Amino acid sequence: MDILEMINANYASFGAARKRIADYILGAPEMCCFATLKSFSAQANVTESTVLSFCKALGLGSYLDLKKALQDQIILRVHPMHRMQMAVNTETSLEKLHGQVVRAHKENLQMTFESNTIEALESAAGLLGGAGRIHIAAHNTSKIAGDYLNQRLLVQGMDSSLLDLQDRDGMYFRLSRSPAKDLLIAVSIPPYGKSTVSVVKYCVELGMPVAAITDRPSSPICQGAQVSLFCRVNLMGTTNTYASMLGLMDLLTMTYSFMTKGRGQVAGSAKCHERFSQLFPEEDATV
């Protein structure tokens, strides 16, 4: 149950003040997710302490948790173009917008790198090293990050491919050939692709190891995964960015490279060159 559904479900039990808060949220969630506590309480015609009490009644720890829950709903319900425009409209000058975007990216990268331990990266790199074939599942815009990871793995000579989630029969046949020897890497951030979640469940049932790259432990693709890596992807409350995810993928593949250095380097280098030349005959290995 999302935050808006939760508010609707509890609406009848609210007193007059809490109903004013609920009406304000349900009528303009895209405005509420940006408002300060002072502004929010004034618009809802209640005190700040009443707003905080309302948050606690919904099981939220703070007003910031309410804003985050509303932002998650905006990402699910509003077209990406409009979400970006909403974020831009909150700024009063280009200088302020520039500062907000720069700060958001710095914070995302810092939080991403701090939240993934060396042990987790080693575990994920170990799954890469033990896999016969690597299948990457990513939906819609998450395919941008999925394709980036695929290129990073290909240039290291791995048998990696991005799954075609539209070709369900072909995809499930490919996954079922040798599940115990292969690895699925699922890449998904809000709104989580149903196809990616379904592939994860299928591979878990097959007994195939799964690694998840997502935004939070509660992400549906973490269920059944042997290891999960997390990225902070929120950009100004209403849209997502893949910058921190790409940075994490660099960290993962370089961790793998470090862990495997010295093991058949010459053969591995030749295999990598041959594999890359077959896939990209007119390119050079600068990825």
Order of helices and strands: HHHHHHHHHEHEHEHEEEEHH
Q: Biggest sheet, strands in spatial order?
A: 2-1-3-4-5
**Residues in helices, as a percent range:** 55-70%
Class of secondary structure makeup = alpha/beta
Distance between the termini: 42 Å
Question: What name does the CATH topology of the largest domain carry?
Answer: Rossmann fold
What would you give as the CATH superfamily of the largest domain?
Glucose-6-phosphate isomerase like protein, domain 1
Beta-strand content estimate:
5-15%
User: What does the largest sheet look like?
Assistant: 5 strands, parallel
Radius of gyration: 22 Å
Overall outline:
elongated
Q: In terms of quaternary structure, what is this?
A: single chain
User: What is the number of E strands?
Assistant: 7
Describe the SSE topology:
Layout (H helix, E strand, L loop, with lengths): L2 H8 L5 H12 L1 H4 L4 H8 L3 H10 L5 H15 L2 H10 L4 H22 L2 H13 L3 E5 L3 H13 L5 E3 L5 H9 L6 E5 L6 H13 L3 E5 L12 E4 L3 E2 L3 E2 L2 H18 L4 H15 L8
Parallel strand pairs: 1-2, 1-3, 3-4, 4-5
Antiparallel strand pairs: 6-7
Helix pairs in contact: 8-13, 9-13, 10-13
